[in-house]
Amino acid sequence: MADTIESVVGSVRDKTAVPLETLARAVVYGILIIVMAAAAMVLLTIALVRAGSYVLPIWAVYAIVGGFFTLAGLFLWRKRRPAAPADTKR
């Protein structure tokens, strides 16, 4: 009788708790990766500006880095999905 109860409880746990643990682990690691990537992006930008200021005037470095981010933003803007058409009937 105890073995039957233990197997039922184990089966229920395998079907409920294990997938939730996996999902929670994926969410936590995903958030951690996003935060670390954002920090790395900021530090890389600072390093590029600092290194570029030794070679070029600072205004040129700002223009190049700003141009890169502008082009990246325009590219991402083109890749966005269009909004769903609004219902204009009233």
Largest sheet: none
Mean residue pLDDT: 89
Backbone CA Rg: 25 Å
Helix content: over 70%
Topology as H/E string?
A: HH
- Quick one: how many beta strands? 0
Task: Give the tally of structural domains.
Answer: 1
Question: Given the C-alpha coordinates, what overall shape results?
Answer: elongated
Unreliable residue stretches: none
- Which structural category fits the helices and strands? mainly alpha
Protein architecture, described:
By secondary structure, the chain is an all-alpha fold. The protein has one domain. It is 84% helix and 0% strand. The chain is built from two helices and no strands. α1 (2-55) packs antiparallel against α2 (58-79). The longest helix has 54 residues, at 2-55. The chain is elongated. The N and C termini lie far apart (65 Å). The mean pLDDT is 89.
Would you spell out the secondary-structure blueprint of this structure?
Elements: H1 2-55, H2 58-79
Helix pairs in contact: 1-2
Structure in a nutshell:
The protein has 90 residues and is mainly α.
What keyword list fits this structure?
90 residues; mainly alpha; 2 helices; 84% helix; elongated
